[in-house]
Specification:
The structure holds three protein chains of three kinds.
Chain A (H helix, E strand, L loop, with lengths): L1 H8 L1 H32 L6 H17 L7 H24 L4 H23 L12 E4 L4 E4 H23 L1 H11 L1 H6 L4 H26 L7 H15 L4 H22 L4 H22 L6
Helix pairs in contact in A: 1-2, 2-6, 2-9, 2-10, 2-11, 3-4, 3-5, 3-9, 3-10, 4-9, 6-7, 6-9, 7-9, 10-11, 10-12, 11-12
Chain B lengths: L2 H21 L4 H20 L11 H17 L4 H6 L11 H30 L4 H19 L11 E2 L10 H23 L3 H11 L1 H6 L4 H27 L1 E2 L1 H5 L2 H15 L5 H20 L4 H15 L3 H9 L17 H4 L2
Helix pairs in contact in B: 1-7, 2-7, 2-10, 2-12, 2-13, 3-5, 3-10, 5-10, 7-10, 8-10, 12-13, 12-15, 13-14, 13-15
Chain C lengths: L1 H22 L4 E8 L6 H20 L3 E3 L2 E11 L4 H14 L5 E2 L4 H13 L4 E3 L15 E3 L9 H9 L12 E7 L2 H17 L2 E8 L7 H10 L3 E5 L1 H14 L6 E5 L6 H5 L7 E4 L8 E2 L3 E2 H12 L5 H20 L4 H9 L2 E4 L2 E4 L12 E6 L2 E6 L18
Parallel strand pairs in C: 1-3, 1-4, 4-5, 5-6, 7-8, 7-9, 9-10, 10-11
Antiparallel strand pairs in C: 2-3, 11-16, 12-13, 14-15, 16-17
Helix pairs in contact in C: 2-11, 3-4, 5-6, 11-12
The chains are: A mainly alpha, B mainly alpha, C alpha/beta.
């Protein structure tokens, strides 16, 4: 294919795709980590994940359009989305924690539609950005550009991931969360307020997604309909890496970002999204087959 | 609900169905859509409610049927790539009545066949997964199918494909497609009703209730699952063909493979009416359509938000659906007898 | 179920009677429109609706429409098509069948217009549309569609023409020009692409990149990386407002140096206002611009219209709003010249229209295309959109090639 030959003619382009892929992959990984958290602790697959990212992005946009530097959007989005997540839990999620996963799928899907359409009503369907005002670095005679805000975002993602990990390992609430994930009933018996644990977990997840969204708004563009692809990517990363495997999530996230960019370059941008969704199908099918060899199935 | 009552209901529904275009001609298209939605809900329930495999990707069969039908309709007289590539240049594509009708008939058959083939292929890959993995996988399939169709030039890619315009000599095509939808809904309903009285449904329900035990008992679960999905796909393929001709303009992601809308709505309709029953999806489809139309008319701009709220309400507060709720309240009507609370007389003193 | 069916039927009948009643009020002509109030096209859909509303308001304020010896007010009945073609077709049916509408105003976007046109044609209801530019609409022998805007294939052809003209400045022959294209995968953009392809073939130019952008576009990096590798002379992008915003931003960010960059929808994406220096020297295809010297008796000049619009709606009108207002004016003119509200007479009056509006001339050929108004190419110069082509209306000379980005 001619596109592949371009990569061989100008290898720095391949480097560009890898770098761009990793930089956005960090954001994917962060969102996936949040989803894994909610899944592991509460046994809920949060389809609203992508919409939380989108909401966080709009917080940054609002700040930017009000004249405030959008980097403040990251903590602001985290705070706002923490509240949103907590409210969502109190309104809907706590009722479905004990039910089957399919119910959580549908319910969170419904919530995602509400949020998506609400944002469409309030902000309109057009793309919005938040300009951080940072420049780019240029290498290889201009063939490779690295946008500085994307690098900043990369480190913020790593930082947040690390911070979350520390929180879970060291703090009391983190311990309570991990205990609930292992065995909710036992935790309750031992005095852990599982309801508060669930609320905190869900709210934390929303906050992480919000921060990721703020970064997306600064580094790329957002509009009310970017949600579903982010949700699917998070799910895929969690499935590949497995719950509780943070390193796996990071690697899978970065890898997915790079794979997506290569696919977009080689197959054409119109197939980039198809690639993501088909990859999900392939991953699941392969996983399921390998388990079927052992007379087991995906649980 | 006695057999006589049931027969009366079916007869009444049938009568209203047949007379509708005469009574309320302005609403013919909407009713045609309702009959198709009933087909969507019923076929979803076969695999979802009866078999426990909640699919978000049944819309793949609708889209496949839609495109297959349109392609066959066009290729009777013209080359498909010339048809979809024509963007100004004065070529007018005319379909005389006999070519149009033959095309339609063959097209619907082709839609059914194509959908079944896709179901057989995908089924063997995808039905090995359980529960939520299956659900999300099919969601991915639904969206991916739309994106792929949107990239396939032969089908018109992003610009979509128009179903052949019916020639004026045929007259009112609204009525034609209405009765086709009605017929399809009737066939689906009666067909599934018959199916639910055979042993096949016992096998399907066994898979839903405990698949491992069913396998241990010797059921070839994979074959049964794929068969069930293929049966649903058969009806969905035809429905897709009719739907495409109803809408006339086939857009790959909005009309053919509208995963995030129709794909999810069919799940909701079945749940709203009552999963795992024959009438449940029918009732659910009707209530859902009516509610949706009310939202669309009276909540201009906010209808999608209202729909999202409705989804959450149904799933969280009303998962048993209308029929489930009625069954709980009036169990006798459904032939169940409920024992009065049995508390041993002696225990009454100690149990407070 | 029996009771429920009866209740449903009763509700439907009640609804039909209620809505039918609204149409038969005295001395009002009700036009029907399905516009994108929600969904992907909601921004431009609202531009369309605002344009329709402003024209109706102005016409009513000026004494309404005189048909024969009676004066009528204009009114518009709206439905939200949610930016989906399936819904648009359904709503067109509803407007005509249930609400008794006899005159339809078009929706936003080619895809939606393509879905609605068969419906209005089937019921022989004239539709004056202002936002559906696809060529396909005019090759089916439809008699009841009238388009006020220039068709999609003309959008970027003037950019290609400009490239051919200025090939010398780039040190090349016209047929040595390398063209890079990125078009969104939707009916309108694909039609623009078809027009560009025709023009490119005519000049014998080479196409080095031909990318389709997904509808959920928010990142064009892969395409732009290719552009940097292959160094085309002209880059054309069409992807509605989303495409323009994303392209301008990323071209600036990745410092993509292409001598000529041309897009559609840059003005509705407000690229000059939002992206500052990155948007400079971008060529914009527009149906209309407020600086053109068209004028009419109702709104005055194009600039007058823009001023009034901004006063009422608090934002400068993109061309989508202007063309929508023109559509209403076309209907008003047809009503008055027909002298009756008989549908066929109005349809014939529409077919014979020949009027000047602030939006440009309006004259329909036998297929419904407007042949009296050209597309305009503007260039972002100093933060403003300046008309640079066609030469008759140009305010300034275009700056070609784009000065290389310096830092």
């Amino acid at each position: 294919m001619s596109n592949i030959s371009i990569l061989f003619q100008a290898p720095p382009l391949a480097l560009q795709l890898v770098i761009d892929g990793f930089l956005i992959g960090a954001i994917f990984a962060l969102a996936a980590y949040g989803m894994a958290l909610v899944w592991g602790v509460m046994n809920i697959i949060n389809i609203t994940q992508g919409e939380f990212v989108m909401l966080g992005g709009f917080v940054a946009v609002v700040l930017y359009e009000a004249g405030i530097h959008p980097l403040w959007g990251v903590p602001a989005a985290a705070a706002v989305l923490y509240a949103v997540g907590w409210l969502t839990y109190r309104a809907v999620i706590f009722r479905i924690v004990d039910r089957d996963l399919f119910t959580s799928l549908l319910a969170t899907f419904g919530i995602s539609i509400i949020l998506q359409q609400l944002m469409n009503q309030v902000f309109g369907a057009d793309v919005r950005i938040a300009e951080a005002g940072l420049g780019s670095w240029f290498f290889a005679d201009g063939l490779v550009t690295i946008s500085q805000i994307k690098v900043v975002g990369f480190f913020i993602c790593l930082g947040m991931g690390g911070g979350l990990l520390l929180f879970l390992k060291r703090s009391r609430l983190g311990q309570a969360i991990r205990a609930t994930a292992q065995n909710a009933r036992a935790a309750r018996v031992l005095g852990v307020d599982t309801d508060r644990v669930y609320a905190t977990t869900y709210a934390l997840n929303a906050a992480i997604c919000g921060a990721a969204g703020a970064l997306v708004a600064m580094a790329y563009t957002i509009h009310p309909y970017i949600g579903l692809p982010y949700t699917i990517r998070s799910f895929m990363i969690v499935v590949i890496a497995g719950l509780g495997n943070l390193a796996g999530v990071v690697v899978a996230g970065l890898g997915l970002g790079a794979a997506e960019y290569f696919a977009g370059f080689i197959l054409g941008a119109q197939f980039q999204l198809a690639f993501v969704f088909l990859l999900l199908v392939v991953v699941l099918v392969v996983r399921s087959w390998r388990l079927a060899m052992k007379r087991q199935y995906l649980k | 609900m006695t057999a006589r009552h049931r027969l009366l209901l079916i007869a009444a529904a049938g009568l209203i169905g047949v007379l509708w275009p005469v009574l309320l001609p302005a609403y013919t298209i909407q009713m045609a859509e309702l009959w198709l939605f009933i087909v969507f809900a019923l076929t979803w329930d076969l695999v979802g409610g009866q078999m426990g495999y909640n699919s978000f990707g049944n819309v793949v069969f609708v889209g496949v049927g839609m495109y297959a039908c349109a392609v066959v309709q066009v290729s009777i007289l013209y080359s498909v790539s010339a048809y979809t590539a024509a963007r100004g240049g004065g070529t007018e594509f005319v379909f005389p009545p006999d070519a149009y009708l033959t095309g339609l008939g063959l097209g619907l058959a082709a839609g059914a066949v194509a959908a079944v083939v896709v179901a057989l292929c995908l089924g063997s890959l995808v039905l090995g997964m359980r529960g939520h993995y299956f659900a999300i996988c099919t969601l991915g399939l639904g969206v991916a199918a739309g994106e792929l169709a949107a990239g396939w030039d032969w089908l018109g890619a992003g610009a979509g494909m128009t179903a052949p315009p019916p020639p004026r000599e045929i007259g009112d095509t609204n009525m034609l497609f209405y009765y086709m939808s009605l017929a399809l809904a009737a066939v689906t309903f009666l067909g599934l009703g018959w199916l639910y009285r055979t042993r096949f449904v016992l096998a399907i329900n066994a898979i839903r209730d405990d698949e491992d035990k069913a396998e241990a008992m010797g059921l070839d679960t994979t074959r049964i699952k794929v068969t069930a999905w293929a049966i649903g796909a058969l009806f969905l393929g035809v429905a897709g063909g009719i739907y495409g001709n109803l809408k006339r303009f086939i857009d790959p992601t909005e009309v053919a493979f509208s995963g995030a809308t129709v794909g999810v709505w069919m799940v909701l309709m079945a749940i709203l009416g009552g999963k795992g029953t024959l009438w449940g999806p029918v009732i659910g489809a009707i209530v859902f359509q009516v509610t949706k139309e009310f939202f669309w008319t009276f909540l201009l701009g906010w209808q999608r938000v209202a729909l999202g709220v409705l989804i959450v309400l149904i799933v969280v507060f009303f998962p048993q659906g209308i029929l489930g709720w009625v069954r709980e309240r009036f169990p006798e009507r459904f032939g169940h007898t409920v024992e009065p609370d049995t508390v041993p007389a002696a225990a009454k003193d100690t149990v407070q | 179920m029996n009771r429920m069916s009866v209740a449903v039927a009763a509700a439907c009948v009640a609804g039909a009677i209620a809505s039918a009643g609204a149409v038969h009020a005295e001395d009002v002509i009700t036009l029907g429109a399905a516009v994108s109030i929600t969904g992907k096209y909601s921004t431009n859909g609202m531009n369309t609706k605002d344009g329709y509303d402003l024209a109706v308001q102005k016409i009513n304020d000026n004494g309404g429409v005189t048909v024969g010896d009676k004066t009528y007010r204009l009114e518009i009945k709206y439905y939200d098509d949610e930016s989906t073609p399936a819904r648009g077709a359904e709503l067109a049916e509803r407007l005509i069948q249930q609400d008794g509408i006899k005159f339809v105003l078009g929706p936003y976007s080619s895809g939606l217009t393509k879905a609605i046109a068969p419906v209005t044609e089937k019921y022989q209801v004239p539709m004056v549309e202002a936002n559906g530019a696809a060529r396909e609409l005019f090759t089916k022998g439809y008699r009841y569609i009238f388009a006020v805007l220039s068709t999609s294939d003309q959008y970027l052809t003037s950019a290609i023409e400009l490239a051919a003209e200025k090939a010398g400045d780039l040190g090349k022959q016209p047929n040595e020009i390398k063209v890079a294209m990125a078009f969104e995968n939707d009916p309108f953009s694909q039609d623009v692409r078809a027009g560009v392809m025709d023009d490119v073939k005519e000049h014998g130019m080479q196409i080095v990149i031909d990318d389709e952008l997904p509808k959920e576009l928010n990142d064009m990096a892969a395409t732009l990386t290719k552009v940097k590798a292959l160094k085309p002379d002209i880059l054309v992008v069409s992807g509605h407002s989303k495409g323009a915003a994303t392209a301008v931003r990323q071209i600036g960010e990745m410092r993509v140096d292409v001598p000529i960059v041309a897009m559609t929808h840059c003005d509705s994406a407000q690229v000059a206002e939002k992206f500052g220096a990155a948007a400079e020297y971008t060529l914009c295809a527009q149906q209309w611009d407020a600086t053109l010297t068209y004028s009419d008796d109702l709104f005055g000049s194009a600039a007058d219209f823009a001023a009034l619009f901004e006063e009422v709606y608090d934002y400068a009108p993109p061309y989508q709003a202007a063309e929508s207002a023109a559509a209403v004016m076309v209907f008003a003119d047809a009503f008055e010249r027909a002298g009756t509200l008989d549908v066929e007479a109005v349809r014939d009056a529409l077919a014979q229209i020949d009027m000047q509006t602030f939006f440009g001339g309006v004259k329909f050929d036998e297929d419904g295309r407007n042949v009296a108004k050209p597309m305009v190419l503007t260039q972002v110069l100093d933060g403003k959109y300046v008309v640079v082509a066609p030469t008759k209306w140009a305010a300034e000379q275009p700056v070609i090639p784009r000065p290389a980005a310096s830092n």
